[in-house]
Design brief:
CATH architecture: Alpha-Beta Complex
CATH class: Alpha Beta
CATH superfamily: Amidase signature (AS) domain
Shape: globular
Helix content: 25-40%
Largest sheet: 8 strands, mixed
Number of helices: 10
Order of helices and strands: EEEHEEHEHEHHHHEHEHEH
């Protein structure tokens, strides 16, 4: 896969081609985000399609939001080859949590309707991502498909639930690992550190976890109804065939300048399938101005994201998006990714 290397204070970008196929894990975006920032394809499945038994988890025993395994590659064919090869081994005979669903052939309608998330209501994407969305919409419409702007269901509530479940033990497990290692808390784990410090005197209970899980299930039912209701606006009589979304608000942020997880995390809570596809590369023309910059900023995350953005520093960095389907529709996600990639390729000719 492609790896982005930042060199010195000039932040020049070098692209290194390595393995044509890799395996990632995803509980909040860890297949999709690196795939997007490296300009490759990546499949985030629903839990139960690919085996996970025997893998090492950063939160062992945390089953309220399940981590999944999936392929990352420079081609769609390689992602699908991996998926089919794994399914052909009938992994449900070895992993007790795998569903006995073989890799299925998908027949898509000739004319599709996609939802498109241009803004998740919490953090507007930066200019190169906005341009990638616009180019994808234009390419699909030129190919005869329909694209309808849409927002995911109650992202603020999703975010609060997601992190309550991640921190269901009050950060105790991660704190024990860090204490054993004798090193300070990494900056990226600050939410867990805060949870641990706040819960040491009043430990989280099983009742707290069960309450959060019940709220998660209620949210997922409401989000499903919200998705199904798109049949009223799709123009096809069907709910959206897929939803196209940013993977992050950034093209390639510097270390510790990745501030917003919810373009991916929102689908982890609902356990939906998603396929990442490259679109374009950032240019120096992708500048922020009065027409595209949020005014006022809606929260600290959005303000930090846009204040950190500098078009000159990320010139040439990949811009990728994801197409999201309903749960356990991995085959459809890949098939929709092919349609989008073909439309984009045709639009460049």
């Amino acid at each position: 896969m492609s790896i982005c290397v930042s060199q010195g204070c000039q932040h020049e970008l070098t692209w290194i081609t390595g393995s044509p196929l890799g395996l990632g894990t995803d509980i909040g975006g860890s297949i999709r985000i690196p795939s997007a920032l490296c300009g490759i394809y990546g499949l985030k499945p629903s839990f139960g399609r690919f085996p996970t038994y025997g893998g090492k988890s950063s939160l062992p025993g945390q089953e309220a939001v399940r981590a999944t395994n999936g392929p990352m590659s420079t081609t769609i064919d390689a992602c699908e080859l991996f998926a089919k090869a794994v399914m052909d081994t009938e992994p449900w005979n070895d992993d007790p949590q795998i569903l006995p669903i073989p890799w299925r052939k998908v027949e898509l309608p000739e004319k599709l309707c996609f939802g498109m998330i241009v803004d998740d209501t919490l953090c507007k994407p930066t200019p190169p991502v906005l341009r990638g969305l616009a180019e994808t919409k234009a390419a699909l419409e030129a190919a005869g498909h329909r694209v309808v702007e849409w927002v995911p269901y109650d992202v603020e509530r999703n975010k609060n639930l997601l992190f309550r479940l991640f921190e269901g033990d009050g950060g105790a497990k991660i704190a024990s690992v860090i204490e054993e290692g004798g090193e300070p808390w990494p900056q990226g784990l600050q939410p867990f550190q805060k949870a641990w410090e706040s819960s040491k005197d009043k430990a989280r209970t099983v009742a707290d976890l069960w309450t959060a899980q019940a709220e998660r299930t209620a949210y997922c039912k409401e989000a499903l109804d919200y998705w199904i209701a798109t049949k009223e606006i799709s123009g096809t009589g069907r709910p959206f065939d897929g939803v196209i979304s940013p993977v992050s608000p950034h093209a390639a942020p510097k270390h510790y300048e990745f501030h917003h997880l919810m373009y991916t995390g929102v689908w982890n809570l609902t356990d939906q399938s998603s396929f990442v596809f490259p679109v374009t590369r950032a240019t120096k023309s992708d500048v922020k101005d009065a027409n595209n910059t949020p005014n006022p900023f809606r929260n600290e995350t959005e303000e930090r994201t846009w204040n950190d953005y500098n078009a000159d520093e990320i010139e040439g960095a990949p811009v990728a998006l994801q197409v999201v389907t309903r749960r356990l529709e991995e085959e459809k996600a890949v098939a929709l990714g092919r349609v989008i990639a073909a439309a984009l390729e045709k639009s460049r000719k």
